[in-house]
Specification:
single chain; 173 residues; alpha+beta; 2 domains; five-stranded antiparallel sheet; two-stranded antiparallel ribbon; 3 helices; 7 strands
Length: 173
Amino acid sequence: MHRIPVSLKSLQPAGSVETPSAKAFTEDLLKQPVEADSLPLRRYDLSSLLQDQPLDWDGDDGIESVQVVMMKLKDLAGDGRIQLEVPAKREIGFHEYAQEYFAEHNPLTSGNFTPTQTQLSIRFHPENGSNRHKVLPVKITMPNGCDLRSRTENERLIGEKYLKRWGLLEEVA
């Protein structure tokens, strides 16, 4: 049995084969061709969600509504954290909810907090005469976490399209 020394410094994120040693390992030792390009680094920025801005969409994507339903915030002055979550049965927007309950102490507008995680709810029109609405929850965690990877290909495409449009996702070369 042969042992191959591997340096942790040469390991890349899943799907990335851009280092010569990773490519050589794949092609020479595993006898597999390398056809994949390196994956772009994804960086998320949730700061724009601190303002009450419309999250628009294209009508032909079948989307009925988009809402921010949860946000975790970190206190810039220390180690404190808070989580705001709109109750599911409430017919009120996220920013309206925060303003209603916090008034002049609203953490979204105070400038004393930065978002660390959020959950968006993308609600689709019912399909084929059904009364049921499909909902795509999207959870984003700073700086580069998102649960779209566990979704179907169509859900990922829709989610990524709008995260880019809304300025929440940036692909870094």
